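FAQ: What does the model actually see?

It sees only this:
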Amino acid sequence: MIKVLIVDEQELIRFAIRVVLERNENIQVCGEVATEAEVIKLIKYSDPDIVLVDIGFPNYSGIEITRKIKKLSPHIKIIVFNAQADETLVKDAFAAGADSCCTNRLTKEKLIEVVDTTFKGETWIDPAIGKIVIQNMQPQPVQFKIKKVCSLTKALLTSREMEVLQMIASGYKNRQIAQNLHLSVGTVRSHVHRILGKLDCESRGQAAVKAITEGLVDNYQLEEIRLPA
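And it is asked to produce this:
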């Protein structure tokens, strides 16, 4: 059973999300709140697996809620959502520790998929948000072509880790990376762990956004992006 806490200042939005999620027998909505103070209190009481946070709160409080949740309970997965694919909000959300990011224009089926995907340790990024993140990038025709990067990044990441990072940013799951690179899934997980440490990232989503925005990888494939953790 996946326990989900919903955070949105609008009661109607919270109700709609609850109705959709509770139609799935594997999901339990353990609470819904409208303020930061309520979030922290309920997290301590219910210990949810996932917190759905509207990052469109006034004065960036949605981002601050995300940051505080991760600091208080790093094991909790956070899905942030917003009415619009705002570039600044998206980047700040991942920097604060978000695991997945979507707009609230998802279909009911997609919302269930986002929750299930995130619970399994993967990161889901809405294609509309992906377009914003990579709007200034020019995709290259050669798949998995690694860009020339600064000497500092070369010193941080091995060639194999750069390959894994490229595939993370292209939306590949751990098992797909393992198959493409002829590695075991366990070895891929070890590479991912080291990559997060070297890039000072708390989640796979952060690493992907950092790789894309800082130009560490080429040929970012914009599809339905699901990034394994």
